[in-house]
Amino acid sequence: MTPAYLAFWSSLCVATVVWELRRGSLGLRARWAVAVAIALPVAVLTRLLAGDEVLFALPLWAALALLVPGLPYAVADARARRSIHTADGTSASQAR
What is the structure's pLDDT at 20? Predict the structure, then answer.
């Protein structure tokens, strides 16, 4: 992860959240405008000022480790979906 990449996504997220809190939902055009007007210049300036050094490197198994906290919610959601279909009298194969 390079500083420019981190700066791009963090500035994009901050600008999107601030915009949505003040004005409401962003449309597709507004999201692209935010990305081009705010996040891209921040990423370019960060790349010029900070360089291309890697901030931190993650091993491949780190992606799986980051998904583990969400596993109970995914299982509970699947169970709830299955119980709704059985309560309606439809099977899971008929619902798809």
Answer: 76
Question: Which position has the token pair 């915009």?
Answer: 19
The token pair at 52 is 């291309």
pLDDT at residue 90, as a whole number: 61
From the list 55, 51, 15, the residue with the least C-alpha distance to 31 is 15
The neighbour count for residue 43, using CB atoms within 10 Å, is 22
Q: Give the pTM.
A: 0.44
pLDDT at 75: 92
- Give the Cα separation of 48 and 64 in Å (integer): 33
DSSP one-letter string for 1-61: --HHHHHHHHHHHHHHHHHHHHH----HHHHHHHIIIIIHHHHHHHHHHH-S--S----TH
Report which of residues 55 and 46 the model is more confident about. 46
Nearest to 39 by CA among 15, 19, 61, 63: 15
